[in-house]
Amino acid sequence: MDLKKIKSLIDLVSNTRLSELELIENEERIRLEKRGAGRREPGFIAASEARYLDAPIAPVSTPEPLLPQTPAPAPSLHLQKAPMHGVLHLTPSPGEPTFVKVGDDVREGQVLCVIEAMKMFNTIEAECAGKISAILAEAGKEVEVGQALFRIE
User: Fold this and answer.
1) 149 contacts 80 by C-beta, under 8 angstroms
2) Category of 130 on φ-ψ map: left (φ > 0), alpha (ψ -120 to 50) or beta
3) Positive or negative torsion for Cα 50, 55, 56, 61
4) Do 45 and 82 fall within a single domain?
5) pLDDT digits (tens, 9 = 90+) for 95-139
């Protein structure tokens, strides 16, 4: 482990809410600890004081991430995604009513829309039963593979 890496670890500990950090690489091990916010107190090991420990290395648990995590969608929420690239059509043909609208109850296998790809019209069916809570793509616009089209609750 080189001095540049140790200095970057010290900066990481100093500039975050971390109170301690332990890094193990192969047979080398370093532990940094700070007590108090913004000022140096006993227990904070600076680069000049850092030392390698020759003791046997024990497994270290991974610390919890400090960044806020986006909450996972509710289990009853399903995003129906486009299986292919093409132009989205929400009606069977021009001037006709849409296959579905927000608030409609749908059953698994019910046609939700059509994607036109290479002059072929491919029906997109509901992957699950539920209620359409949002239409996430615009009719007549191109959609990409994996793009969310409908939110089904």
Assistant:
1) yes
2) left
3) negative
4) no
5) 999 999 999 999 999 999 999 988 889 999 999 999 999 999 999
Tokens, residue 11: 């900066």
**58 φ/ψ angles, rounded to the nearest 5 degrees:** -100, 150
Instruction: Answer yes or no: is 143 within a domain.
Output: yes
Looking at the structure, tell me whether residues 88 and 126 fall in a common domain: yes
Tens digits of residue pLDDT in 34-63: 765 444 444 444 444 444 444 455 555 555
Range of the domain at 91: 78-152
Please check whether residues 136 and 84 belong to one and the same domain: yes
Residues 82, 54, single domain; the answer is no
Determine the Cα–Cα distance for residues 97 and 116; give it in Å rounded to an integer: 18
Over the range 22-50, which residues count as b (16 or more CB within 10 Å of their CB) and which as e?
eeeeeeebbebebeeeeeeeeebbebeeb
